[in-house]
């Protein structure tokens, strides 16, 4: 096969997007290319199916049954889902992470955007140092981040407590039931401001500079340019950070799970939906119900991120 | 970024954001700089505290001020960390490196092959399969872990190293990234030329394309490596034998023993020093491999 083919992958860079109606009789070269494409995609798709599709299907299947000491496994239809929807422990967890989401995500993303705009303005001294310092927490595993903040919050040797005692003030009760959600928000904010900032900063760098030139000619100030040109220009990057944050909030597990050892009376077994699913599976051994909760959670997250995306796309069009 | 977003075209793709000459006069602002610098202690203080605390013995942790040094005890702490429970910390480091390394290389290779095929070949199921992969970016990994555990329990894979490695080989985001990257990085004319020279499609991938895809490959590798290095939930539910734990699960277990206070108070200093040891490789990797992070995040964010 030496003749260069004009069909098949010619201009293949955009091909998947515009694969038009196809003819039946492909030339041997095209067939060879199809075979190569399937061969290249196959290893990923096999692992993808085994590790992502099959577990979800299996969990969906398990969630339709109930395990009983007497009588073994029996089909119960959607009873586990009905139970989850009426389960106040699950409901409280969902409400708690929703509250978390509504407060923490705007603060975190707002700060990330401010830092990204400050870096992009080119007006900072020590830019590289600033960028690295803010991004550094992302390199810290959430387990270590939570351990650190847990100690910093703690009444034993936390510096905040030490400072308060030095000033004869009451120690801030970071790990009390009233403060815990805020303390968790702070850990997540610390971990992810830099990550979101880098996404936004990279998007800002890709905006053509001549867009600003015209505005400057018209006498627009930097703040005006940031608000009217830069932020709209990177809305798709901002949307991405919103969606990732929504997904992250509903999955909250590591941080509450680790703070539980410091405040067992504040963080109960159903503090977040994921913590609840975990405790159902491994403490209560109620695997079928745990599968239903996990599946409901995954489906819920997918729906919420889809809705976030749809509404913002609609707003963009109007 | 998702199944509903049209695939980016070549023109939009810019894997390495190039520095753009700034339109402004290049004036630096001392005021803005001071304002930003004032916020940096928030990001750095916890890490500074970790460094200070890992130089203290357990008694000084409680008795001395947390943000300043007391007697320098780092060497003893390190010895404690590495000798505790028969040197199990060494196993945790080895396990973490193994899990993260295999998952990183494996996921990068799978994603590169698939992303390249999606970008450079027009084949019947291509569009459909790629949409499915894109949709999967939205599937929450933590919520997926319990279903995966249930499945692995059925086939007796729990409490094996495979239980941590296999699920970490899948990176739908990596495929998306490589699809965007390959579209630009591998010129179609080059593939045609190789075909004219009689090279088979597989040979083109392994000898021509793979080299051009190396920067993207490394970006995906790094992302997956760090994600696996940091993973806690999956190994926590999959593994029960301490010698198979990664650092995250091991440290969390030490912490819960220490906080339980069952005569094991000495462990606090070990948890802290162990935490410091566990983040050193990552911090170094971050500082030295910065451009790959930025490239990866840019491709994900700009094209969303």
Question: Any chance you could write out the topology, listing elements then pairs?
Answer:
The complex is a heterodimer of chains A (318) and B (304).
Chain A: H1 28-62, E1 65-68, E2 72-75, H2 79-85, H3 88-120, H4 127-135, H5 142-153, H6 159-166, H7 180-205, H8 210-217, H9 222-233, H10 235-250, H11 254-259, H12 273-282, H13 287-317
Antiparallel strand pairs in A: 1-2
Chain B: H1 30-53, H2 58-63, H3 74-120, H4 126-136, H5 141-154, H6 162-168, H7 172-185, H8 188-196, H9 201-212, H10 214-230, H11 233-238, H12 247-260, H13 267-288, H14 290-302
Give a description of the structure.
The complex is a heterodimer of chains A (318) and B (304). Chain A is an all-alpha fold and 318 residues long. Chain A has a domain at 87-146 and 173-317: MetI-like (MetI-like fold, Orthogonal Bundle), CATH 1.10.3720. Helices cover 67% and strands 3% of the residues of chain A. Chain A has a two-stranded antiparallel ribbon. Chain B has a domain at 90-245 and 291-302: Orthogonal Bundle (MetI-like fold), CATH 1.10.3720. Chain B has helices at residues 30-53, 58-63, 74-120, 126-136, 141-154, 162-168, 172-185, 188-196, 201-212, 214-230, 233-238, 247-260, 267-288, 290-302. Chain B starts with 29 loop residues before the first helix and ends with a helix. The model of chain B is unreliable at 1-25 (pLDDT under 50). At the A-B interface, helix 1, helix 4, helix 5, helix 7 and helix 8 of A face helix 1, helix 3, helix 4, helix 5 and helix 7 of B.
